[in-house]
Amino acid sequence: MVMVYSVGHISGAHFNPAVTFAFATVRRFPWRQVPAYVLAQMLGATLASGTLRLMFGGRHEHFPGTLPTGSDVQSLVLEFIITFYLMFVISGVSTDNRAIGELAGLAVGATILLNVLIAGPVSGASMNPARTVG
């Protein structure tokens, strides 16, 4: 939420490929820029993951909240559902003129909190394909 408020006015807060696809789908972002954004997001996630691996020696016990405990299928389905839910909220608060712009970050943050509480124990609640792959 902090990053959205900090640099959202500069980049549109495209930290997540799902956000980029959602905005392109509702015609708020040009499709021709999607590949470059997704590539940058994947590269950023991979570099961040590599940095954490170097900092913590690659031991998984340092990251208990991001390790799925459910099966691969359970995690995939749950991630799809919570990512869709998050993109639905983001699309709603950022593209509807009737939404109160200053509260968009709060709505998105609350959605992330609920998603983490619900899906975190099963899938790790990534909600970000770049983070999952990185």
TrEMBL record:
Protein name: Uncharacterized protein
Membrane disposition: Multi-pass membrane protein
One function term, GO molecular function aspect: channel activity
Subcellular location: Membrane
Family classification: Belongs to the MIP/aquaporin (TC 1.A.8) family.
InterPro entries assigned: Aquaporin-like (IPR023271), Aquaporin_transptr (IPR034294), MIP (IPR000425), MIP_CS (IPR022357)
Species of provenance: Aegilops tauschii subsp. strangulata
Primary site of residence: membrane
Gene Ontology annotations for the cellular component aspect, listed alphabetically: membrane
Keywords of the record: Membrane, Repeat, Transmembrane, Transmembrane helix, Transport
Membrane-spanning ranges: 36-56, 76-93, 100-119
